[in-house]
Amino acid sequence: MCGLWVAYLLTHLEQAVKWLETEAAAALDRGDYKTLLRHRRSVAMVLIGFWRGFRGDELARLTVENTKAHSGEGITFFLAHTKGDRLHEGTTFQTPALTMLCPVEAYINWITVAGLTKGPVFRRLDRWGNLADKAIQPHSLIPMLRRIFKEAGLPEELYSAHSMRRGFATWASANGWDIKGLMSYVGWKDMKSALRYVDAGVSFGGLAAKAAPARLGAS
């Protein structure tokens, strides 16, 4: 059952990203910068949210200054505080570049088209498509996700900010991650949270673009 769910989830993710990329390319061709912005942001938000297992509040607090991306290698995020960071020391999260549905390329494409050099990674876009200086509101993520999946022809009611984290944990479990690897990667301090998802080490199921470096350095 787990394998079927994972295949179903990745199929939906791939379909949504394919639709967004097609729409972004069409917007670029016709010179529609504001639509291009929206779709590039959506691709980055969906792929980073899924592959990192981030909650809405964590996506909203990502900053360009504390994100380092290397095309074909990986991406590093630093959050000054997280739910499990009781000592307030801050937490660094890393994700490798992937051969498909790559969060690294999605991030680079987004900040490039948006011209971002500092401040929030994921910013508000008003109804006219203008990019704000302020970050998205965490509570706005669920409506955004549902709109994205609905426009891509998918059942939007199945998706929420929580389902991104749950979906990644289910995928990781199906790909042989052990509980310690999953807890470390997602940032869980409470084993009960991870045990809800783990059946069983950290594997990206053959999707990794290259062998993970010992450390993802700053650029």
UniProtKB/TrEMBL annotation:
GO biological process, one term: DNA integration
One Pfam family it belongs to: Phage_integrase
Gene Ontology MF terms: DNA binding
Sequence ranges assigned to domain Tyr recombinase in this UniProt record: 14-212
Keyword vocabulary terms for this entry: DNA recombination
SUPFAM superfamilies (UniProt xref): DNA breaking-rejoining enzymes
Protein name (Swiss-Prot/TrEMBL): Tyr recombinase domain-containing protein
Protein's organism: Pseudomonas mandelii
